Amino acid sequence: MMDFSREYRRCQRLVEDGLKEYFIGNAPYGELLEAMRYSLLAGGKRIRPVLLLQFCRAAGGDMGFALPLACAVEMLHTYSLIHDDLPCMDNDCLRRGKPTNHIIYGECTATLAGDALQAAAFRTLLAAELPPETVVAAGKTLAEAAGEDGICAGQYLDMKGQGMDLSLEQATLLHDLKTAALLRAAALMGVEAAGGTQEQKTAAGDYATAIGLAFQIRDDILDCTSTTEVLGKPAGSDKANCKTTFVDLLGVEGCEALIRQKTEEAKAAIRGKFSDTDFLEQLADYLAERKS
User: Fold this and answer.
1) pLDDT, tens digit, for every residue of 274-291?
2) Most CB atoms within 10 A, among 64, 122, 192, 214?
């Protein structure tokens, strides 16, 4: 069996080393670059780029060639976090244990740092040394996850739903867009980078959809049971922002049961579709059981 922790750390290091190469040098707009790096290099689990690299490996590809795609996914994810934290959105002051971008650099620079990271994500992807058709496919996948059918739609529904009693169906749709969409894109892009089959892409999408929902349910549990110090972001923010959570709808026990169900669905989706699913199955368990 693969040493999961060791392999995860190896992928994290690849991503961290890759990201450090971006947005460096002197420029008249140096503070903007600094703001971009501040959030991009603030740590975190790097789940999405690790997921991309490991689906590339599972589909028989070279993770080294997929690294620019992994960096692109993390740039886009970071942009979404910067914007989510803005006063006009969730108005959060803490992210990954550090002051949020707009607290340090002001709302205007933070907004532009997010905008620039989204653009840089696509520039980085387009520069990948992969076949042109692969780059186009990956770019389309990332764009679909980023836009009006992905995380922007999810954030819109999240904001519109504040103060409303959402149904389980409405909450599931919201988080399939806001949370699972980019996880799904990362998994699909990994398979695309490896030149994988349509069957593998379908399996990767099903896996990511299931872990995306489990991930969000765990987030909802932690938001009401953990502390700000452990989470690295404000605990209790969902209640403070009058958001309907899965805990509201199902209770903690019901949430735990659904996490287990979705985790097993994720693992079942990829078995037999790739030569080695050990890491990805352990990743599903790791995300289901995380404490922060």
Assistant:
1) 989 999 999 999 999 998
2) 192
